[in-house]
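Record type: monomer structure entry
Structure origin: computed from sequence
Chain ID: A
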Amino acid sequence: IVQSGLLSAGFLIDIMTHRITGISKVCSVGNKMDVNECDLLPYLLHDTNTRVIGLYLESFADGRRFLDMCRGSAKPVVVLHGGRSTKGAEAAMSHTASMAGNHTIISGALAQAGVTEARDLHQMMDLCRALDAVSRPVKGSGRIAILTFSGGAGIVASDFMEERGLSVAELSQETKDDIRQLFPPWMPVRNPVDLWPSIEKHVGTGVDVFSKTLTAVLADPNVDAVFVHTYAGNIRIGLDLTDLATQARRAGKPVFIWLLGRRDEAFRFREQALSFGIPVFHEISRAVECFAAVFHQKASYAVNSLPGKDRVPILTGELNDVLEKYAGPLDEYISKRILHCHGVPTVAEELVENMLQCEETAVRLGFPIVMKGLQRGKVHKTELGLVRLGINDIEEVRQSYEVLMEKMNGQGKIVMYRQVKGKIELILGLVRDPQFGPCVMLGLGGIMAEILNDAVFAPAPLTGEDALKLIGRMRGKKILDGFRGDPPVNREELARIIVAMGNMGLTYPRIQEIDVNPLIIGEKGAVAVDATIILK
């Protein structure tokens, strides 16, 4: 499905003339005035001649419906989204009048639905044919055996695999013993398996080194897939594709090929491999990308449903009136009360209106204390000088009260709480996206949130598993595993908070945004120390 007429025609000709893969249907939807991807998907998902669906889209007509269909699909879906950049989004608007949307949100939504995302057209096609070639469900975690004729190529492949979250398989002793019989005595057996010395040893003997080694590694329980390197036009490095396809099918494990060599011979090799359903790649990196897609693609599962009312508290009284009648940003105190009622842990705090209350509250809470000035509509309190940290005695409490009230011109209240200790700060939020509805956001927080820009998104509702996978998509996730002697973060607890945030977005359609920054991870768990809810 392509949102571009000439692109679909031109790319189709490219695919067909280069014989890259088979094509079942081509659908060009243009500006989607009358037919869109959601109209076509149900047909393609049930079409017996279609095994994988690839889409180039500049916008999503109904984002949530699209995700629901992808989640329930037994067929892999690959999407290339045009308009990822600012200029790309502007071009999409002039091309098909498409609102490209926030690509970070779109990427997170696709990942949650089990959709594989492509970065260019040829990669999209390579991903499609790789996913088509593999029987599902794929077993294993992505432990790859590399059979190569070049030590350097094996090293490069190993590097790419680590970058893509795959692993170079640790061969069993039995497998090593089998392969050692083919090797010269001086050659150690390890993965990547460099076959060139063995090929040289057996020249003229009729021994098919590739076939015998492939048999050994495919039988290894530590190996989930095999990456074979070969060369077109060199008889010593020739592959018997019939034998390779038979072995791969019998073992039920993916086998991909990286091919170098003479142009004409390489073209004929690709054609023959295509007839056997074996993916062949010109670049090592692309082959590894496709391995990663195969092993990381989420298995299809039933569409999440909105939790029942027994699991999502429905507010009454003052807080319900706020959610129904107010508009714009709520102050921090009210925002945190609402969050606390829905399962997001918040700091224990008190609201004070005069100096005497301030002093009494400080004694009751204990030092050190945080004091913040609250004014309706004022969100970024730090920039306005309305946050006082590390207050250690009554005199500092009095001084802070006077400073805060002066900055608010006497028109505001003050919230106080005991300062929370914790070395990890996260940002947790919710945004209402025009294409995908309420989406939960998670990232590294505090003052570094905008600098590091490590934020991941997923549409609500989320299951606990969804939330754990959202955590796993953070670039800075390693900090959660324990940093400089600190204990690891309880990911299950964090996942429960993420699920609660998503449920709020579904339950209250007037909530446009929620910003919890920071969510501090301390000795007693996670706690929100600053928060803002913005209402429609």
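Annotation 1: Residues 92-100, 299-310 have pLDDT under 50 and may be disordered.
Annotation 2: The chain has 20 helices and 20 strands.
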